[in-house]
Backbone:
């Protein structure tokens, strides 16, 4: 968003804050990802353009405008939802900037117009340039943790009432998109004697396309969601594969730089490639989850100890703590 004037970013922040105030049931239980991205609270995401484009197309469907991100644990499904929110927020701020520019151009053109000497009316009035609004430009993604809906509900019907209030707000505004991580957990969530669970409460709204949902689950746990065939039909799968090769290395380099900035700890002699090789050898797992864990813990430890820089020795010490082995 470096090329967007701060004025338009602030204008969009004001709109999103106002939206949070308007939909208190939703905003009190979830995170406004668009707002967090404009505030710089979300980590940047790289090389996920294909998945983001696929989700956008699904969100524009007339029927079943719902996406299900499916991938192995730790491959970055949540990050994709956050990246989509950041993309939408920056697009809208850019659109606001272009609209303002078009208005300035029109005002300048009007000022140059001559007037009819008898009537005083403007002559040769120019046509105002229309700035098309990008798809999903007004969309706002709310990250809804399932536990926030269940927490504190002790009595029969309390969870159902809370969920219905939130869904009512979502139905009022077609621009709201819910992101539900670990969506397979909706099965049985909040169910008590005489009340319905979260999955059953969502089904009618999904069937009538009254709400839009992006869900995320693992390749192992997606089978739980598929047990209810009627619910599963409401979603279109978007496969999320772990990044590999140059894409993974480029992302790792960006992650390293981002965590240096966050922790205010430099890593002058540490390369992302070196760390990736060591993480793959000693821990394995899926990129970028374990890579981020190692980088984050190393730098947080350095910050706690008052260091301003880390070395490969510090990386090895973190790996040794994590694996319980000696790493020379």
Residues:
């Amino acid at each position: 968003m470096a090329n967007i004037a701060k004025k338009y970013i602030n204008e969009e922040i004001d709109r999103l804050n106002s939206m949070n105030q308007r939909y208190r049931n939703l905003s009190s239980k979830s995170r406004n990802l668009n707002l967090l991205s404009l505030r710089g609270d979300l980590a940047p995401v790289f090389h996920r353009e294909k998945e983001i484009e696929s989700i956008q197309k699904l969100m524009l469907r007339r029927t079943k405008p719902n996406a299900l991100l499916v991938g192995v644990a730790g491959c970055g499904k949540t990050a994709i939802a956050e990246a989509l929110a950041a993309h939408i927020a920056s697009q809208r701020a850019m659109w606001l900037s272009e609209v303002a520019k078009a208005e300035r151009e029109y005002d300048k053109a009007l000022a140059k117009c001559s007037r009819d000497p008898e009537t005083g009316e403007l002559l040769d009035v120019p046509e105002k340039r229309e700035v098309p609004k990008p798809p999903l430009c007004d969309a706002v993604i709310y990250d809804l943790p399932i536990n926030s809906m269940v927490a504190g509900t002790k009595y029969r019907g309390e969870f159902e009432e809370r969920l219905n209030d939130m869904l009512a707000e979502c139905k009022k505004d077609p621009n709201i998109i819910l992101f539900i991580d670990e969506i397979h957990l909706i099965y049985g969530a909040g169910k008590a004697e005489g009340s319905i669970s979260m999955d059953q409460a969502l089904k009618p709204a999904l069937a009538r396309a009254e709400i839009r949902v992006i869900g995320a689950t693992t390749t192992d746990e997606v089978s739980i969601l598929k047990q209810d065939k009627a619910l599963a039909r409401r979603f279109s799968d978007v496969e999320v594969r772990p990044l590999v090769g140059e894409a993974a290395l480029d992302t790792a380099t960006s992650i390293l730089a981002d965590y240096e900035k966050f922790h205010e700890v430099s890593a002058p002699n540490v390369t992302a490639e070196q760390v990736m090789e060591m993480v793959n050898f000693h821990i394995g797992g899926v990129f970028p989850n374990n890579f981020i864990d190692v980088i984050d813990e190393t730098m947080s430890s350095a910050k706690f100890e008052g260091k301003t820089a880390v070395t490969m020795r510090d990386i090895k010490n973190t790996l040794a703590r994590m694996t319980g082995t000696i790493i020379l």
